[in-house]
Amino acid sequence: MQTAVVGASGYAGTELVRLIADHPYLSLVLMTGESTAGKSVADHVPSLAGRFPTELYGSTEDVFASHAEVVFLALPHGASQVLVPRLLDQGRVVIDLGADFRLKSATEYEAWYGHVHATPELLQTAVYGLVERHRSELRDAQLVAAPGCYPTATTLALAPFLDRGVIEASGIVVNALSGVSGAGRTPSDRLHFPRLHGNAEAYGLVNHRHTIEMQQELGAELLFTPHLVPVSRGMLVTAYARMKMDITAGVALEILRQSYADDPFIVVTANPPSLKDAVGSNLCFVSATVDPRTGWLIAMSSLDNLGKGAASQAVQAANVALGFDESAGLSLIGIAP
């Protein structure tokens, strides 16, 4: 199927281009970049030069005149709302990597994102693109809202225990470490090398926008604190929840194994996952243990923030929506060392 990537010059968009270039069923016909329109793809992203030596980025408006049947949107939050209705009216399948259609409540969206949603009627239409939780809903979906990186890692770690009533649905604490590519390509003081190198810092305390997305997906209340660490990509989540049932660490791991037995991209490990385990793949590593002394369960996960946390997850969701093999074009092998 002919495919376009709008916002192809950013980090997530570049990763989409890389994945779609070798996808067996998707054919890339347009790459756009609002600030790079007319510029060489190979010059902007040299790693793509071998496959796209002469191609140029188009402008966002070019997508409406293109032959693309599937459109991936990798744009800043808020930018998709004016594009999606027009794309749907043209009969295209839309996979949005931004936050514009993840929340079901327009009121919650305004509260957490600071502006009124332009197309609230589509919030109930969009299907949340976490395949492991919404596989059946995604089939034949026209509008897919790809989840955020933190909500993906957090949901996959905690959901099996909330689903079974093993842990309390309130008072959950989530700490997360993310590579700096999750902050996007635009330079900032916080991402300046002398400040970032050898450093780590918490940000978005109490009001990080991904909090409401996690709470919606998990049906739970949580306190979320993300941390920026000086690596380019990768994510590690450690979550803490009070247990309602007296279970062992072995039982906790068995719950994860049973929950994800049919999910090819979830790896359950007895050892705590590391931040780099999943880098370069669509994998998410999950693990859990319990502390009988305090009555807390510890759930852990790691993924590639540009992979399962963004681009490859969007491709996985598109595969399901379009009726392809779920694993088409995606890697089950990370990069090591």
TrEMBL record:
The keyword Iron-sulfur does not apply. The keyword Amino-acid biosynthesis applies. GO terms for molecular function: N-acetyl-gamma-glutamyl-phosphate reductase activity; NAD binding; NADP+ binding. InterPro entries: AGPR, AGPR_AS, AGPR_dimerisation_dom, AGPR_type-1, NAD(P)-bd_dom_sf, Semialdehyde_DH_NAD-bd. Residues 2-141 form the Semialdehyde dehydrogenase NAD-binding domain. Pathway: Amino-acid biosynthesis. GO terms for biological process: L-arginine biosynthetic process. Keywords: Amino-acid biosynthesis, Arginine biosynthesis, NADP, Oxidoreductase. SMART domains: Semialdhyde_dh. This is Unannotated protein. The lineage of its organism: unclassified sequences, metagenomes, ecological metagenomes.
